[in-house]
From TrEMBL:
Assigned GO CC terms: cytoplasm
Gene Ontology MF terms: ATP binding; ATP hydrolysis activity
InterPro entries cross-referenced by the UniProt entry: ATPase_AFG1-like (IPR005654), P-loop_NTPase (IPR027417)
Protein name in UniProt: Cell division protein ZapE
Native organism: Paramicrobacterium agarici
Keyword Cell cycle attributed: yes
Keyword field: ATP-binding, Cell cycle, Cell division, Nucleotide-binding
């Protein structure tokens, strides 16, 4: 790694961090990420070409209120109220605003006992507190939001289904989006039937909202991730230091190796007090396990909206053609979209 002598001892490296998180820390972090700290139904901008987006907003407003008015029948005195199902599943491709809407729903919930987290964060919570401890912590909550519900680990899926079944029986409402299962068909979207099949014991409690659209990050962004030379990274580091900004500097391959020894639920802690990320000598990945770790890492970087400056090959080309034709294709496409956005911010 080429680090200017003037920067030695002052530049932060992600590979030097060994974050630890207790069960209490994990629970305290079950809130929308900073990017969605102020997300609301009003701040969501539906694409007029896809009416399902505005329809989803309307339904979620109703879901938040707890009931939907039904058109009164002839001679009836009052409109009836149909109880809304206690769960809602947002079904759509990446970049159509599912996480924004999920966070908006969380913010609209008036109760103080509400939680928002990724599937990985909830499973990490069970790992830290145990199943019964997690049930005890989450019992009494009014709303549980699960972003990126993983369908490719049968054990974790069954455990989460059991957990949500117990909470739903207590009156907790549920809202979820999901990641793609292995070998799922379809480009850039997550099939509702896959989600409902995997949580079969809970399926009847969920109303499915299909949200059509195109990835908003690609609406104005074409081509590949922006790349830089090592000399340009050196200059960026000097400017960051001079301005008091916190910029990390890591070799790409070394970071990929480091991610293997950090639990994905702790990736967010790698980014504490970081304003920008520099990656040097980006190369194509040859391990699917490493590629999936990068996807999880980029998700957290994107949540934090940290610009990336990188040398080597464009970051969106790190996944091989074999990976892109496999069962995790849609995860890789989402990460590529997010990396294009992050590198063009730099």
């Amino acid at each position: 790694m080429n680090i200017p002598p003037s920067q030695t001892g002052t530049v932060k490296h992600l590979v030097d961090r060994r974050p630890e998180m207790s069960g209490e820390d994990l629970a305290a972090n079950l809130v929308p990420p900073p990017q969605f700290a102020t997300a609301s139904f009003d701040s969501y901008r539906p694409d007029d070409d896809y009416p399902s987006q505005a329809a989803a907003v309307d339904y979620l407003r109703t879901f938040s209120a707890g009931a939907v008015p039904k058109k009164p029948k002839l001679f009836s005195r009052k409109p009836k109220q149909d109880a809304v199902k206690p769960g809602v599943y947002l079904d759509g491709g990446f970049g159509v605003g599912k996480t924004h809407l999920l966070a908006a729903l969380w913010h609209a919930e008036p109760g103080t006992r509400k939680y928002f987290g990724t599937f990985i964060e909830y499973t990490a919570l069970v790992g830290a507190l145990g199943y019964s401890g997690t049930v005890k912590l989450l019992s009494g909550s009014t709303l549980i939001c699960i972003d990126e519900f993983e369908l490719d680990d049968p054990g974790d899926t069954m455990m989460m289904t059991r957990l949500l079944t117990e909470l739903a029986a207590q009156g907790t409402r549920l809202a979820a989006t999901s990641n793609t299962p292995p070998n799922a068909l379809g480009e850039g979207r997550f099939a509702a039937q896959d989600f409902l099949r995997e949580i079969h014991s809970l399926a009847s409690t969920f109303e499915t909202l299909r949200i059509d659209g195109v990835d908003y990050r690609r609406r104005a962004i074409e081509g590949h991730c922006a790349t830089a030379t090592d000399a340009e990274i050196d200059t960026a580091l000097e400017q960051a230091t001079a301005s008091g900004s916190s910029m990390t500097d890591d070799d790409f391959s070394a970071l990929i190796e480091h991610l293997a020894v950090v639990h994905p639920s702790r990736f967010i802690r790698l980014l504490d007090n970081v304003d920008e990320i520099a990656l040097r000598d980006v190369t194509q990945l040859d391990s699917q396990a490493a590629a999936l770790r990068l996807v999880a890492f980029i998700d957290r970087v994107y949540d934090a909206q940290l610009p990336i400056i990188a040398s080597g090959i464009p970051l969106d080309t790190v996944f091989s053609e074999e990976m892109l034709s496999g069962g995790f294709r849609k995860k890789y496409l989402r990460a590529m979209s997010r990396m294009i956005s992050l590198t063009t911010q730099s």
